[in-house]
Write a structure and sequence with these properties.
two-stranded antiparallel ribbon, mainly alpha, Arc Repressor Mutant, subunit A
Length: 166
């Protein structure tokens, strides 16, 4: 893990989060904006470490890790699963193939489908980066009590269920 820590002060200052039923004064009062901002702060830190220590971008890492999770997905399946643009994913995949982290092969079941999978080198990198990602996720919870952590995760799961219905 990097010696660099996420900055103690976010770039933007926020008042306490208002109720979602209170009329927002500006965009910073919207829960969705705050959540996206939190993700951007985390992503910025992760991107820096991933490039410096592992030579991979955050987008490439997430692509690699999702392919490993899915087994041997096609690019289209990967795009649908991650809700990302197929063109962007294609660029990530091309870069990962050039660096021998991924390989593609024609599906045995359907010759029109190209399946993606990690190479031995990709598996090794995945293992290393997964440890970093896990530790980074743990760091986000260090200021929360065990009860708060459990409650936050339960609430997050409820929000996922709600948003998945949109």
């Amino acid at each position: 893990m990097s010696n660099k820590k996420m900055s103690a002060e976010p770039i933007e200052k926020f008042d306490p989060t208002p109720s979602p039923w209170a009329e927002p004064r500006d965009i910073r009062d919207l829960f969705s904006y705050r959540l996206a901002y939190l993700v951007r702060l985390n992503d910025r830190h992760a991107q820096t470490v991933l490039i410096e220590q592992y030579g991979i971008t955050l987008g490439e890492w997430r692509t690699l890790a999702t392919i490993r999770c899915l087994g041997t997905p096609s690019l289209r399946h990967l795009a649908r699963t991650t809700q990302q643009d197929e063109g962007l994913l294609s660029r990530y995949v091309t870069g990962l193939i050039k660096r021998a982290l991924l390989e593609k092969r024609t599906s045995a079941e359907d010759q029109r489908v190209v399946e993606l999978s990690l190479t031995e080198k990709g598996e090794a990198l995945h293992g290393e980066v997964m440890i970093f990602a896990w530790k980074l996720n743990q760091e986000m919870f260090t200021d929360l009590s065990a009860k708060e952590q459990t409650h936050l995760l339960l609430l997050l799961d409820k929000l996922f269920q709600k948003v998945a219905k949109f």
